Amino acid sequence: MANFIDRRLNAKGKSTVNRQRFIERYKSKIKKSVSDAVTQRSVTDIDTGESISIPTKDLSEPIFHQGSGGIRKQVHPGNKEFTAGDKIPRPDSGEQSGSGDGNASDTGDGDDDFIFQISKDEYLELLFEDLELPNLQNTELNKISEYQIHRAGFTNDGVPANINIVRSLQSSLARRIALTVSKKKELEQTKIELEKLFNVPGSDIDEIERKKNIIQSLEGRIKRVPFIDTFDLRFNNYAKHEIPSSQAVMFCIMDVSGSMDQATKDMAKRFYILLYLFLTRTYKNLDVVFIRHHTQAKEVDEQEFFYSQETGGTIVSSALNLVTEIQKKRFPENEWNIYVAQASDGDNWADDCNKCVETLTKNILPVVRYYSYIEITQRAHQSLWKQYQKLQNDFDNMTVQHIKQISDIYPVFRELFKRQSNSA
To answer: Residue spans with biased composition (Polar residues) (predicted)?
Structure first.
C-alpha cells in the first residue's frame, strides 16, 4: 500500500487558485448577487466586501450512483429491530425543501444555501466588470508616472560634483581631533617636563635627549594625520519623488430645493458613491467637489451636501456657473481630468434652461471628460431634460439617464459606462 506524505510548506494564500476558479465557474450567479446587493446595502459600507449566497442545488457535482429500483441486500451491524427476510419500506425519493430557498418544510432535513464571502477588491472587480470610462484614450498620456528630484540628506558615496564642502570639512575636523587629541596632550606634557630639565642645573643630558626625541616623534605623528581623507567626504544625496500625474476631479451637483425629498437625495448619493469608486480604479489622485443649489449654488462638504434641508425654487445655471469658476481657478483642464455628475428631479425655472445650455456648451462640455445627468423622478420629463437630450446628441461626452427607484441605479450606472464596441 502506497503512503503519500504532503511535505509542502503551509504558506498563506494556498487556496487562491481554487478561489479564483470557483468565482469564474459561478460568476453569473455571483454577479447577480452583487448587483442585487448594490441596491440593498447602505452607502456607508459600499467600500467593503460582500457575503454571496448561492443555492446548494446550483453547486451540485455529477456523481455515479445506483438508480432506484432493483433488489438490494445490505447488512446493518447492531440491528435490533429487523431480522433476515424482513421488508423495509423504501423512503420517499422526493427532495425536501431546505432553509436555503426560503420554503418551509415540516418533514425531513434540508440544505442551507452556500454562503461565500468575497473581498473588497473582488467585489469591486465584479461590480465594475465590462465597464470603462468614455474618452479614456485622451487621458493615457496623463497616466505616465513622473518623478521629481529632491534633497534627501547626505551619503558617503557620490560623484565629485555633489560633494558637500561644509559637511566634509566638519567630518575632517572631527577625525583630526579624535586622532590627535591624546598626542597633543602628551606633547604638551613632554614640553613642560623638558622645560623643567633645562631650568634645573646639572640635569641628565641623556634624559633631555630622550625628551627631545619624544617631542620630535609626537610632532611627526601629528603632522602625518592628513587634513582630509576619503573617509571624510560627504556628498549631497538626491532621491526621486513620484508626482501624481494621473489625477482627476469629480464635481457632484445636486438640486436641494423643496421638491427634492430625502429619499431622492439618498438615491443620488448611491449613484455618486458608485461613480467615485469607479473613478478611483483609474486615477490615483481623485478630488471631489460637492456643489448644492436651489436658487443659489454653494460649495459644501459631504455631510451638508446630502443632509442639509433647503426650501425655495430651482435655478440650475447657478451651479453650472460655480463649476466653471472653481474649475478655472483650481483645476486647469491641461492638468486635471474633469468629470461632472448632476442629479435633479427635473425642476428648473423655465427661463433658466437656455442659460444652462449656453454655460454647458461654452464653458463645461469642451473641458470635461464626461458629463452625466441623472433625473430622479416618477413624473413626466420637463424642459431641462429636453434641453439636455439635445446636448447629448451634439456632444459625445454627455449623457442623460432616468432613475425612478433604487433598483434602477446600478443598471443606469452600467448603461452610462458600458464598454464601447470599438474599444481596444
So the answer is: 94-106
- Alpha carbon distances (Å) from 156 to 169, 170, 179, 228: 13, 14, 20, 14
pLDDT over 60 at 386, yes or no: yes
Q: Indicate the CATH number of 246-416 among 3.90.1590.10, 3.10.620.30, 3.40.50.410, 1.10.357.10.
A: 3.40.50.410
Give me the pLDDT at residue 98, please: 44
Give dist(CA 234, CA 381) in Å, integer: 73
pLDDT of residue 50: 60
Nearest to 419, CA basis, from 140, 131, 137: 131
Task: DSSP letter for 319, please.
Answer: H
C-alpha to C-alpha distance for 67 and 32, rounded to whole angstroms: 35
Task: Cell 446550483: give the residue.
Answer: 58
Residue 263 grid coordinates: 429619499
Do 175 and 203 touch, CB atoms closer than 8 A?
no
Whether pLDDT at 164 is above 80: yes
Q: What is the CA radius of gyration of the chain?
A: 40
pTM of the predicted structure, to 2 decimals: 0.52
Count Cα atoms within 13 angstroms, Cβ side, for 60: 7
**236 by DSSP, 3-state: which?**
strand
